[in-house]
Amino acid sequence: MKCPRPIIEVARRIGEVSVGSLLELLADDPAAGPDLAAWCRMRGQTLVASEAHRFIVRRES
Amino acid sequence: MDGAREVVAGAVGARPDEVIFTASGVHASQAAVAGLALGRRRVGARIVTTAIDHSAVLAAAAAGGAHEAVQVDHEGHVDLDRWTAAIGTAGTAAACIQVANHEVGTLQPFAEAAETCQRAEVPLVLDATAALGRIDLSDMIGWSALTGWAGAFGGPASVGILVIKKNARWRAPYLTDDYQAGRWPGVPDVPAIYAAAVALNRWLQSGRTVGERQQELVDQLRAGIVQRVADIDVAGDPVRRVPHLLTFSALYVDGETLTLELDKAGFAVASGSACSASSEHPSHVLAAMGALTHGNVRIGLTWTTTAAEIDQFLTALPPIVAAIRATVGAS
User: Which CATH class for the A5-58 domain?
Assistant: First the structure.
């Protein structure tokens, strides 16, 4: 998946978890890390973990 | 050549015999960083830059063996406390900072950063590429080498500018000959250098009103884009910036499609998105600032850009972004 696909998928799935729960993203796109951090800032969510190809977001609202 | 050197020297508060013309801005950056580091190799090999310097500067610093890239804030300003700590670290041979960032336009606190370097006696490269002709640098002190590129102010792309202060301990990091006082080899391209000087001189003589107009037009663009399109991330300092640059990203949009659609609509723009680069990596500038890297567009206003053209862009952009978002099912 290349940018912006991983972020679109996160946006689509975040509604499926309850507030306070975690969503995991696996993506090998080099833009996924910086773009997920930017998306969390723009959407008021929290990036809990950001590793090479694995990212965890906590739904805040 | 003498006249061209005088124009550049006047612009940056240097002496004409301190001015060298290289074959590109990248060459000027490499020569400045590597040459100051070579002159100080007994001190150490550490080179300090910011995280958002031009890739030519980052590559030259990394090639020296020990590179520290100081973090920037969300608008692109270098953290001065971290800068001071990095400059004060033992073994620091040289440092480099931009006057203004080439992608987002943010002005660095370059006077303060230069003062830090002077106190620590670390020679500084001032990268004036995005600022030359647009920001008054004639009173600027505290740098050992200054770099620029004629292509950034409407001159030929084949002329780089390198100014090395007489008292700087700079050594050519390549073989030289008799040309340009043994600081850049080969016969100078005099017609191109003359054209570069004419372009720079035009900015110095009558660029002020153009810059003021560009500053206002970018303000209008910035406000208009955010007003008309949802989920836009505008990068860079809205006030302390060069007049002509604006960078923004549209959420859920791919940068390559966006630039192609804008091109079809008659607007030539650049992009820092990974999909529009050959490397598959997004702009290191946007990533370091925490800005959104996909759906990125960089606009550079020209000498003749009008308010009517800004309005045309603001009319063209919303349906293009909406159409791309519709194809990926995002809104």
Answer: alpha beta
